[in-house]
Design brief:
Layout (H helix, E strand, L loop, with lengths): L1 E4 L3 E4 L4 E5 L12 H10 L7 E7 L7 E7 L5 E6 L4
Length: 86
């Protein structure tokens, strides 16, 4: 799989670190029931088939955060945005 970095051009996925679903919001640690919400956010994830927004970090390149829209069935990269924007 290859990702088109907006700054470095097309690169091997081996240069990037996958961070997970770009749509997950970190729970408020001070809210009531925070432990249960963190458990859900970390361990109870959907496994969608089709286009999915993911966070990737260009670890061995420009060190940018990217929001990559990837088809989880075909692994086709549909879109790449900078800054983790989704």
């Amino acid at each position: 799989m290859r990702i088109q970095c907006p700054y470095c051009g097309e690169r091997s996925v081996n240069e990037f670190s996958y961070l997970g679903d770009a749509g997950i919001e970190r729970p408020d640690p001070h809210a009531s029931g925070a432990a249960a919400r963190f458990f859900e956010a970390v361990y109870l994830r959907d496994n969608p088939a089709g286009p999915h927004n993911e966070l990737w970090y260009h670890t061995y390149g420009c060190r940018s955060w990217l929001c990559v829209t990837r088809d989880t069935v075909t692994h086709e990269i549909l879109r790449v945005q900078t800054g983790g924007a989704h």
